[in-house]
Design goal:
The chain has twelve helices and 14 strands. By secondary structure, it is an alpha/beta fold. The protein has two domains: 207 residues, Isopropylmalate Dehydrogenase, CATH 3.40.718; 135 residues, Isopropylmalate Dehydrogenase (3-Layer(aba) Sandwich), CATH 3.40.718.10. The chain has a ten-stranded mixed β-sheet with strand order 2-1-3-12-11-4-5-10-8-9, with helices on both faces. A two-stranded antiparallel ribbon has the order 6-7. Strand 11 and strand 12 form a beta hairpin. Helix 1 crosses helix 10, helix 8 runs parallel beside helix 9 and helix 10 runs antiparallel to helix 11.
């Protein structure tokens, strides 16, 4: 059965990493005779420039009718002074909301060949395998907001239903991992966090009594990610805390450019993207790291297209490339045998695929 993938290259380095991710997807599809159709649409600043809106109706329609979506990156200083409702990031937020993508999964692992890329000592990195499960459609990013010349406000809201559905997913994922969930909040200060903690406790006592559940404050979580990262398995948290903590956790792997993510809903297509931003300072230079984008394709194949064999092929190929010493500029200090650009890294992954 034919499956459709929509790619949204976006802004900054987005088109550069998307090009390499798409090359890898096509190569795996050809190798395994997958019946995939890949279509490209506009989102973010690129859509705003071309069509006057960061989320065109035709893009939303294409995404709704797809089986999976890949996003490069959105945003940049070019659009810093546009109306807030037209900023590129609003296109992504609107897409997540329209598709009901309430859960963001961000796996963080350390590759043995890249321990020198992290600012942490090597002994702290051995065996790190974390999955951040971030609620994606509530909280400050979607609450009522406003500002005047002298004041501004942003509202953080959560309902019991929103907390239950993300907590249930975290529990289901922990069951097939190491059986531990760390729920992160700020319950000593915030009413939303107190509701969060009460709801998580009740749901886990009822539905996941066999799992090891702990609660910690977000400031402690930030410290423990650096001081004892091996103790985390699944981290469950709300929208803004998850955004910040998962970016911090990227330093365990050595670079934002390495990490993939998946945004999933109860039904319909998932959205997959590297966690890095649009990096306008290096856009067009051909040096962006496409690793996170390529690994996001692996997540797409596994979670939305049910092609686990294809996902494993990509993950093994990326590991082989890193073990060989090939590095992009952001990882040059990590024992590089050769520092290459974006396209050459994609070439190396494609070559590794052919050896499987």
């Amino acid at each position: 059965m034919k499956q459709t993938v929509v790619t949204l290259p976006g802004d900054g380095i987005g088109p550069e990493v998307t090009a390499q991710a798409t090359r890898v997807l096509r190569a795996v599809s050809d190798s395994l005779d997958l019946d995939l159709q890949i279509r490209e649409s506009l989102l973010g600043g690129a859509a705003l420039n071309a069509l006057g809106t960061p989320l065109p109706e035709e893009t939303l329609a294409a995404c709704r009718n797809s089986d999976a979506i890949f996003l490069g990156a959105v945003g940049g200083p070019e659009w810093a002074n546009v109306d807030p409702s037209l900023r590129p990031e609003e296109g992504l937020l609107g897409l997540r909301k329209a598709l009901g993508l309430f859960a963001n999964l961000r796996p963080v692992t350390t590759h043995p060949a890249l321990v020198d890329a992290s600012p942490l000592r090597a002994e702290r990195l051995e065996g790190v395998d974390i999955l951040v499960v971030r609620e994606l459609t509530g909280g400050l990013y979607f609450g009522k907001r406003g500002r005047t010349a002298s004041r501004a406000f942003d509202t953080c809201e959560y309902s019991v239903g929103e907390i239950e559905r993300i907590s249930r997913l975290a529990g289901e994922l922990a069951r097939v991992r190491r059986g531990k969930v760390t729920s992160v909040d700020k319950a000593n200060v915030l009413d939303t966090s107190r509701l969060w903690r009460e709801t998580v406790n009740r749901l886990f006592q009822t539905e996941f009594p066999e799992l090891d559940l702990e609660h910690i404050y977000v400031d402690a979580a930030a410290m423990f990610l650096m001081s004892r990262p091996r103790e985390f398995d699944v981290i469950l948290t709300e929208n803004m805390f998850g955004d910040i903590l998962s970016d911090e956790a990227s330093m365990l792997s050595g670079s934002l450019g390495l990490l993939p993510s998946a945004s999933l809903g109860a039904e319909g297509p998932g959205l997959f993207e590297p966690i890095h931003g649009s990096a306008p300072d290096i856009a067009g230079e051909g040096i962006a790291n496409p690793c996170g984008a390529i690994l996001s394709i692996a997540l797409m194949l596994r979670h939305s297209l049910q092609q686990d064999e294809a996902a494993l092929m990509i993950e093994k190929a990326v590991s082989k490339v890193l073990e060989s010493g090939v590095r992009t500029a952001d990882l040059a200090r990590a024992g590089a045998g050769e520092t290459v650009g974006t396209v050459a890294f994609g070439d190396a992954v494609l070559a590794a695929l052919t050896l499987q």
